[in-house]
Design goal:
By secondary structure, the chain is mainly β. Helix content is 12%, strand content 52%. The protein has a four-stranded antiparallel sheet, with no helix packed on it. β6 and β7 form a beta hairpin. The longest helix is centred in the first third of the chain and has 8 residues. The N and C termini lie far apart (41 Å).
């Protein structure tokens, strides 16, 4: 009961997409979906050192379209995840790129994860 109540009484903080990079390269939206084995406290997704998605008290499954360029060589996204508890936890990351292909990766950690993941 505490988690739903907390979500109702606290604002979700979200970072704006990196619009400058999109306008320079004509980038299209990629679809990013995250699924967690354990409920995280918070997470942040960074592209080129800038936060493009931040959530506090996220749900077990989250998804968002991000307007960032996807060049032929791929992209690197940095994930910062704060897990609740000290047990081993995982995040499944699915990226649907502009041509429709789905790329899947995962992150495993205890406590806090800070990892750069490449999607090509």
């Amino acid at each position: 009961m505490a988690i739903p109540l907390w979500r109702l009484t606290h604002e979700r903080t979200e970072a704006a997409p990196v619009e400058a990079a999109v306008s320079e390269t004509g980038g299209k939206a990629i679809h990013l979906q995250l699924s967690f084995t354990q409920m995280p406290r918070e997470f942040k997704v960074l592209y080129s050192g800038k936060a493009v998605w931040t959530e506090t008290a996220p749900r077990q499954d989250e998804a968002r379209d991000l307007k960032i360029p996807f060049p032929p060589e791929g992209i690197d996204l940095q994930f910062e995840i704060g897990w609740t508890g000290d047990a081993l936890a995982a995040a499944k990351i699915q990226v649907t790129i502009p041509d429709g292909r789905v790329i899947e990766r995962s992150i495993w950690s205890k406590g806090t994860a800070e990892e750069v993941v490449t999607f090509q």
